[in-house]
Specification:
Blueprint lengths: L4 H7 L1 H43 L1 H4 L4 E2 L2 E5 L4 E10 L6 E12 L8 E10 L2 E7 L2 E2 L2 H6 L13 E18 L4 E15 L5 E10 L5 E9 L4 E12 L4 H4 L7 E15 L2 E21 L2 E17 L4 E10 L2 E6 L5 H6 L4 H8 L6 H13 L6 E18 L6 E12 L2 E2 L5 E10 L3 E9 L2 E15 L4 H8 L3 E15 L2 E15 L12 H8 L5 E5 L2 E4 L2 E4 L2 H13 L4 H18 E4 L8 H16 L4 E8 L1 H22 L8 H9 L5 H11 L7 H8 L2 H20 L5 H4 L2 E3 L3 E2 L7 E8 L4 H14 L8 H6 L5
Parallel strand pairs: 5-8, 6-8, 16-18, 17-18, 30-31, 30-32
Antiparallel strand pairs: 1-3, 2-3, 3-4, 4-5, 4-6, 6-7, 8-9, 9-10, 10-11, 11-12, 12-13, 13-14, 14-15, 15-16, 15-17, 18-19, 18-20, 19-21, 21-22, 22-23, 23-24, 24-25, 25-26, 25-27, 27-28, 29-33, 30-33
Helix pairs in contact: 12-20, 14-15, 14-17, 14-18, 16-17
């Protein structure tokens, strides 16, 4: 009998289907519970992480930490923190911050007692390092996590941090004592990280300066135990303005800036400065250092040093080239100290103070000490410089300690040297320079690179106007010169410090001018020149020098013999010398009208010449003249400035407000020394707290530039009017042309009006030219004909 169909199904396939559904439901339920559990863990662990970080930050770190939110995946170990800020202890100031921090924790390595995080990324990281004396603002963190001394129990827990990146970070450094503020922006760091059992830390770094233009990029690696390092750096147009902050530690004032470019490959050790191997290129451009941005004491356009190999420890210095373009240095002497000592203290007291201050870090001093360490064995080493060149230098010296300013400059100056190598027997150096206002100089030096006391020196200076030294002559003799040129040349042969040298001094046509009004030191210069001048109106002497470099001996035999000869022979040539002098003056007076400083009216001799010149114009209808005012503006303005300041002092001290300055008073003002104690006190009172070091600067404070320009203009107009009065007649007025004034530095040291003749030349002047030509081509003047023609004088 067959079973019912429904029963068969219930006992067969119908019974299995409900069982599979039951297991499926259980699996889905379990999976749902697991997913819910995971979701709950993920959902709660992230806010819990944020909660515990902010709750226990002070307990474990000693600093307040805040963040916007945290995401933690406990199954993959991924952590993401948003807007993290760590503050300074007990302060609202932020120590470090980041827009985002993310990393992965390798969970499986926790079982092997290794805490390893990798793929660490800090986006827009910003950190601030603050230093006060030797204390840093993160010392508390270092001390908190410093391992405790004594034996450790159990196996240590190891820490690895791998694959670290900082994207677009900022790092600020502040030193509160100096103070120093510096920052690096757009900081990018990519490092493989650090393992607990490896000592090498390496990173690719790129950053830009936050204190100006430029940046740095390169690769850096360091052994944390031995402190050996390797560095490949590329520096592009890095502005060094931040060095100015360190200058303030060792200078009363100052402005500094430069730009650095470099491509360097170095390896060495941080504990041993001489343990260095380096090569590459270093370039400094637009270097400026001075009182302020407008007044440089020192500057240059470009300094380039290309290093083939530098290894101080093994005493190897191989340089391909060292070049310096357009260096400028200004040295000024004041009544008190000079421009260098005014800035750095007497005998560098401010620098010494900064060097001895061990509590303050100074980057400039540290770099200087480092360079000194690297270079101290240079001359004892195997050194080579393939090319050394200094081009278009400008070295200026000024002295404000006298009644007048003295100034001279070597510009443009160039120095070149052939290959400088220790293995060579000689090294040759060549110097050539123009000298301002006039003259040239050259020096050839051949030196033994193994012994600096073994050298040959050849030098020549020519075409120097003696009048440029008038500030010294007026101060120490009360006389001035208005003609003359100087030449000096010689050769030195020095072996083991022993000198054999010949030195030749030639002074052409020196002429003493009238004494100055301020006669503080009286030396009879005319009488002195009478005894030392030789035939031909020259001083021509050989001055040998012997002895050694520490104790040279000057031999004045030639000078003494000539002085003795002149005592007996000069009187016999008086007529000849007088005739030559009169002829020279005729030529000079026929070519120019010389003006003393501040002179407005003509002297009697000048008036007589102009009367003769007017007569020539009347007698020779075709004759025409041009008058060219050539003004020594710098010296004229200095004289007017000092005179006006002395006049103000004189009126306030010796005259009542209603009294008018008389001619006698004007003479007294002119005679007053600019170094008079009462006058100096008067200037200092008006100078106040201004940083002024010279009498001229203090006088400028009393008058604006417009006032002095107006005074100079009035002086020029008075002089022109004094001449034009002689040519007012209709018959000559149209044949005299006055040209616009020209500013120059005259060879004779005085402003003058040059007279140019057209069509006709006065017969007296023609006769004087012919007579002077005869004198110059005959003994004793013939010997110096070439030198006289080379002089850049107006005659």
């Amino acid at each position: 009998m067959h079973e019912p169909l429904g029963k068969i199904q219930s006992e067969g396939g119908g019974m299995k289907k409900p069982a599979s559904k039951k297991w499926l439901k259980r699996f889905i339920l379990l999976a749902g519970i697991l997913l819910l559990f995971v979701g709950l863990i993920i959902a709660f662990i992230s806010p819990l992480t944020k909660y515990f970080i902010e709750k226990y930050d002070m307990q474990y770190l000693g600093r307040e930490i805040t963040l916007d939110y945290a995401y933690v995946n406990p199954f993959t170990g991924y952590v993401y923190l948003k807007s993290v800020k760590v503050r300074e202890p007990k302060s609202d100031s932020v120590f470090v911050s980041a827009n985002a921090i993310s990393f992965n924790i390798q969970l499986r390595k926790l079982f092997s007692r290794t805490f390893e995080i990798d793929d660490v990324v800090l986006d827009h990281f910003c950190g601030t390092i603050i230093q006060t004396h030797t204390d840093l603002n993160f010392n508390d963190i270092i001390n908190r996590f410093r391992p405790s001394p004594g034996p450790k129990k159990g196996d240590p827990f190891h820490f690895n941090m791998l694959h670290v990146k900082i994207n677009d970070g900022t790092l600020n450094y502040r030193e509160t004592i100096t103070p120093i503020n510096y920052s690096a922006i757009h900081l990018y760091i990519d490092s493989p990280g650090l393992r607990w059992n490896l000592d090498t830390l390496a990173a690719q770094v790129a950053l830009q300066s936050g204190n100006g233009a430029g940046g740095i990029k390169g690769h850096f690696a360091m052994n944390l135990k031995t402190l050996d390092y390797k560095l490949d750096a590329l520096i592009g147009k890095l502005e060094l303005k931040f060095f100015e902050q360190y200058f303030r530690q060792m200078a009363r004032y100052g402005n500094f800036n430069a730009f650095l470019d470099a491509d360097l490959a170095c390896k060495g050790n941080f504990t041993d400065a001489e343990n260095l191997t380096a090569n590459g290129l270093v370039t400094l451009t637009d270097f400026h250092f001075g009182e302020n941005a407008q007044k440089d004491f020192a500057s240059f356009d470009k300094f380039v040093m290309r290093v083939n190999l530098l290894n101080p420890k093994n005493k190897v210095y191989l340089l391909d080239s060292v070049t310096l373009s357009k260096p400028f240095f200004k040295f000024e002497q004041y009544d008190s100290l000079d421009n260098v000592q005014q800035m750095f203290g007497k005998q560098g007291a401010k620098v010494s103070q900064a060097v001895n201050n061990t509590e303050q870090f100074n980057l400039i001093i540290e770099i200087g000490d480092y360079i000194k360490t690297l270079a101290k064995n240079f001359f004892k080493s195997d050194f080579k410089v393939n090319r050394l060149a200094i081009s278009e230098a400008n070295l200026t010296y000024s002295n404000f300690r006298m009644n007048e300013k003295f100034s001279v400059a070597a510009a443009p100056l160039s120095i070149t040297a052939d290959s400088i190598e220790k293995s060579k027997s000689r090294v040759n150096l060549f110097l050539h320079s123009s000298i301002k206002p006039y003259g040239n100089g050259s020096v050839n030096l051949s030196i033994n690179p193994k012994d600096s006391s073994d050298f040959d020196l050849y030098y020549n200076f020519s075409g120097l106007p003696i009048c440029v030294f008038n500030p010294y002559l007026k101060s120490y003799t009360s006389f001035a010169l208005d003609r003359g040129s100087l030449e000096l040349n010689g050769q030195w042969h020095v072996q083991q410090g022993r000198i054999q040298s010949s030195n030749h001094l030639l002074v052409l046509d020196p002429r003493v001018y009238r004494p100055t009004t301020t006669l503080h030191h009286w030396v009879p210069l005319r009488m002195l020149l009478f005894f030392v001048k030789q035939e031909g109106n020259v001083l021509d002497y050989e001055i040998p020098i012997t002895g050694d470099l520490k104790n040279p001996k000057f031999h004045l035999h030639d000078l003494i013999v000539d002085v003795a000869k002149n005592i007996f022979l000069k009187p016999a040539t008086t007529l000849y010398r007088t005739d030559v002098k009169l002829t020279e003056r005729t030529i000079e007076h026929g070519q120019l009208i010389k003006w003393e400083l501040g002179q407005q009216s003509l002297h009697a001799s000048q008036q007589r010449f102009l009367e003769d010149l007017k007569s020539c114009l009347i007698n020779y209808p075709d004759m025409r003249i041009g008058i060219y005012p050539l003004l020594y503006t710098e010296k004229e303005k200095e004289y007017l400035l000092l005179f006006e300041a002395k006049k103000m002092f004189y009126q306030s001290t010796y005259l009542s407000k209603s009294e008018v300055l008389t001619r006698r008073d004007s003479i007294a003002v002119d005679k007053l020394s600019t170094k008079d104690a009462a006058f100096v006190a008067f200037l200092n009172k008006h100078a106040g707290s201004h940083m002024l070091f010279t009498t001229q600067q203090k006088c400028e404070l009393l008058f604006g530039p417009d006032y002095m320009n107006q005074k100079l203009k009035q002086l020029s107009e008075h002089r022109r009017h004094a001449l034009s009065c002689f040519f007012g007649e209709p018959s000559v007025a149209g044949r005299v042309t006055f040209f616009a004034p020209e500013n120059i530095v005259p060879f004779n040291g005085y402003s003058y009006f040059r007279i140019s003749y057209k069509a006709e030349i006065p017969s007296s002047l023609m006769r004087a030219y012919a007579k002077m030509n005869d004198y110059d081509t005959e003994w004793p003047r013939r010997k110096y004909l070439k030198e006289r023609k080379a002089i850049k004088a107006p005659l």
